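--- STAGE predict ---
source: upstream dedup step, 1 unique chain passed
mode: sequence only
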Amino acid sequence: MLGQPDDPRGVVLPLDGRPGGADVGTPERNGDARNARNSRDGGPPAPAPAGPALLLSWRPERPDAEHRHWGAAVTASSELARRLARPGAARGPEGGLTFRLALPEAFGAEPLLRLGGAETVPGPAGPSALLPVDTPGAGPAPGAGLGLLALTTAVEIATTGTQRRVLDELTGAVTDLAPSCRARLDSRLGAAEEALRDAQTELLENGVLGSGGGLDTAVANLSVLRHQTHAWIAGWERVVAAADRSGTQGIGLREQLGEVGKLGWTGFPGAVHGAYQALVLDARRLVLTAADQLLRSANRPLTALRPLIESDLAGRAADVGRLHRLLTGLSTLPLTVRKRSGGMMPNLIADQASANARTQALFTRMANALHPPAWSGAVVVEVRSRDTGELQVLRPA
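--- STAGE serialize ---
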């Protein structure tokens, strides 16, 4: 099978969006009935999907599930529950199980997952089954839709966790080394974060995004903030490019960085904080809105997501890379003390030297915070099914 290992513990679901038909067969709780019958009769196994496929498996709920909850629980009548339910079931999937949904690739979301350093979820032992595909000729197989829900969830888990870590480390660096530069967070970023979190929940619940003003406003604000971020980064890069590599005055460098956008030196660390956050939020927005577009189109394969997002996500990741290189360059730039004619008092020289040391340490810690973590290449989501019928997404173990 292309793009997925042949694992007897897991059965696959095509992601090509093709209609269900007689060749798909009727799945059973513990695997594909055709394969079991063919194996018993000595015949060949049933053909595997010709394209990328989702690997679905489940196991009994683990004791640590309560401590791994991510996001709000989704209802028993949600789109996610409907897609995980067996044929003819009056409710969602059975309670007391943890479902594992593994994708063979990220379908264009790789640049964002590399920024997020998605964690690997270990493969389970135990029973698996085909996801139900409905009766022959009844409509499109649900693989692509479930794959989209799994992918957007995996992206959100990875990027929100890394985003929180980076922003906390940036804030900590400023607090420790430049307490007079405390960041004043842009309220538009906070509103966009909330709108994206609500949009992810809405996708899992309804399978589409509503037309509420929250996400529309966030999209408009993030577009403005992204262009502002581009202007800031370009201005800071010009300052670094013009600096004397043999030694530049610390006071002058801080003043020049503050001149960009007329933020002042005290506004520079907060601007870096906001620039990173705006770029990651806009990347998350791209994935969610593209997934919504595909979920509204019947029979669209999951591979159709790549041309919608890959180029734009690569651009956002490249901008974060520029920010990281900028701070790395600043951290290695030798800073000197400004000496007036006739000399300066030793205590003033010492104060300037101390300020320069703190400035370089600040640049170093901010650059380290933006260093992208490793990504294993796996796209895996685990979902816990409660006895009430609700589903709870789990963080990686």
